[in-house]
Design brief:
InterPro entries: DNA_glycosylase, HhH-GPD_domain, HhH_base_excis_C, OGG_N, Oxidative_DNA_repair_enzyme. The protein has 15 helices and 6 strands. The chain is α+β, with helices and mostly antiparallel strands and 289 residues long. The strands form 2 sheets. The chain has a 4-stranded antiparallel sheet with strand order 1-2-3-4. It has a two-stranded antiparallel sheet with strand order 5-6. It is globular and about 50 Å long. The chain binds a DNA duplex (13 and 12 nucleotides) through helix 6, helix 8, helix 9, helix 12 and helix 13.
DNA sequence: ATGCAGGGACGAT
DNA sequence: ATCGTCCCTGCA
């Protein structure tokens, strides 16, 4: 039985498990996620996908899972690279997601120098403390905190959520969004270079985190974030970053050069290629998230 | 038990 | 342009 066209390159379970979003969990047969001020849910029924949201927002999945993207041309573009071409076949259904910019920014500021289970814990604690309680299907959830709610919190209170030194950076990020110096709508319209430069002005946002925010929430599909896993992929599969040991972190200069090279090589959808590489490296290492 | 790594970024040399 | 440091937790 053939999948309808919409589902040919779309499996939300793979997508929410690919390290780009943090606040998703499976309960029974359904997956539940926190998307800004809503709880979102999906499950399969007789082979078809069903989406729900609380409170209800019609077709929220179209935006969230980028279902309007022309995946034929996107995949054709990044499949010019033979390795990525194979990964597209290996992981059918993996898609980039479109995150809420504020949630995405706060999430990735929390991501510096830590691991995914820790990020999940930090964000979960923030949600419980500053988000709104929502009961869906008899289960309790907490929405992602608003910028205003976090803006009112002190650095000390944020630290108490297990953020460590990141509390100062969260203060800076929500402050910039609250006072308008970091203007999300402007950043969406701006080009990659300009939006990136604006993000880098915020304390706690460096090159890597900026690229994540640009790719996952600001429509910059050419952004190519390089974390330790992507650095390993570039070194082992592409022969880039020559001479760098696997255990070493990238220097600022190395990041700039490698990211520029990758953006040129993979093209205007480089970020999509990055997601396949990232997912593959993690799968290969047997990571359970 | 001490060390180290885990989706980095900052500040001082 | 490099290098130590930053909170925190799990694991060797």
């Amino acid at each position: 039985m053939r999948q309808p066209p919409l589902l040919a390159h779309f499996d939300p379970e793979t997508s929410v498990n690919s390290g780009q979003v943090f606040l998703w969990e499976k309960s029974g047969q359904a997956w539940y996620g926190i998307h800004a001020d809503r709880v979102v849910k999906f499950y399969r029924q007789d082979g078809a996908l069903v989406f729900e949201s609380f409170p209800e927002e019609r077709q929220i999945e179209r935006s969230m899972f980028r279902l309007d993207d022309d995946t034929d041309s996107i995949f054709a573009e990044i499949a010019k690279d033979p390795i990525v071409k194979k990964l597209i076949a290996s992981y059918p259904g993996l898609r980039l997601m479109r995150q809420d910019p504020a949630q995405c920014t706060i999430s990735f500021v929390c991501a510096s120098n830590t691991n995914i289970p820790m990020i999940r814990r930090m964000l979960g604690t923030l949600a419980k403390k500053y988000g709104q309680r929502i009961v869906a299907d008899g289960k309790e959830f907490h929405t992602f905190p608003s910028v205003q709610a976090l803006h009112k919190a002190s650095e000390g209170e944020l630290r108490a959520c297990g953020l460590g030194y990141r509390a100062k950076a969260i203060k800076a990020a929500v402050g910039a969004m609250a006072d308008g110096s970091l203007d999300i709508e402007y950043l969406k319209k701006a080009g990659y270079d300009e939006a990136r430069a604006e993000l880098l002005k915020v304390y706690g946002i460096g090159p890597k985190i900026a690229d994540c925010i640009l790719l996952f929430s600001l429509e910059k599909l050419d952004a190519f974030p390089i974390d330790v896993w992507i650095a390993r992929a570039l070194a082992s599969h592409y022969g880039w970053l020559a001479g760098k040991k696997m255990s070493e972190k990238l220097t600022g200069h190395q990041y700039i050069e490698a990211s520029k090279a990758a953006r040129t090589y993979f093209g205007k959808y480089a970020g999509y290629a990055q997601q396949f590489l990232y997912y593959h490296m993690r799968q290969d290492a047997g990571k359970k998230w």
